[in-house]
Amino acid sequence: MTEERSATDIFRLLADDTRVDILRAVAVAQYELDEVGAGAAELTFSEIYEHVDVENTSKLSYHLGELTGTYLRKSDDGYSLSHAGERIVRFILSENYEQPESFGPEPIDGICVFCGADALEASLSHQFFRIDCTACEQQVTGHPITPAQIKTRDVDTLIQSVKLRTAENARQIRRGMCPECGSHLSADVIEVPESALPDADSFVVTSTCEECLREYNSPLTYSVVYHPASIAFHWDCGVDVTRRGIWEFHEYVYEGNWTSEQIASDPDEYEVVLRHGNDAVRLYLDSTATVIETERVRRESGEFQRS
Ligand SMILES: [Zn+2]
Ligand SMILES: [Zn+2]
């Protein structure tokens, strides 16, 4: 075990231009080495010295000593970035500490979950990609985005990137992994009687990361969208849910095609039904929102039957 160090000790190590330059130089030199699939490249003292503007070798030696153990790893073959070094140097290189460029308001596809109007607008609100309904003036959704995500895209590809990231994150969350820090997540289902659409879905799955304290909430219906049974069902109906944004599912809930209900208690069990035309998929979930059973059903003379 290493000795406990405070966050200020860790960050104080970086309050020096030369050390930030060293981390940057290690990343640049690894990039230029161009060794595909060789793992993290290790750089010798002299390779680093060539890349950093430092007075002499003893200064470099001192700074490398300070960084090693926290931001760098040292082996017989040389230096490479540690986990913290990787995270920090990517953050620095991508300039994700800068203020994001503004964008919007831009009209965007989808309907409002509250009023059903086709009047959504996307804009930047602090570090969030935010969608508002211009008809009822309510915020429909908000997703964290990074300054680099904005800087490297036009509006259309930015919207695509938000869809992709929210879908990827939703999958990780439902599989019990915090997308932010990688910790294990556990989930609870809670009833929200004042939900926007209590008849369609009044349950929320809430997952809190005990390590980084990020909290993730999702309507119960949306929590199963990326389950393989739902992806396959929608694919068969001609809809690729993996390419849709969360706000593009609002119409299904607003129109009552996606519903959830509690079907047992002690232990609690829930049923989510995702309908498309005369077909539907039913997913049964336990109290941790884990899907325990699925079935496809088809509407025959008004009633849904097992197909
Ligand atoms: Zn609205
Ligand atoms: Zn976390």
TrEMBL record:
Domain of life: Archaea
Record's keyword terms, sorted: Plasmid
DUF7351 domain segment(s): 109-291
InterPro entries: DUF7347 (IPR055771), DUF7351 (IPR055775), WH-like_DNA-bd_sf (IPR036388)
Domain DUF7347 span(s) in chain numbering: 8-92
Pfam families in UniProt: DUF7347, DUF7351
Protein's recorded name: Transcriptional regulator, ArsR family
Lineage, highest ranks first: Archaea, Methanobacteriati, Methanobacteriota, Stenosarchaea group, Halobacteria
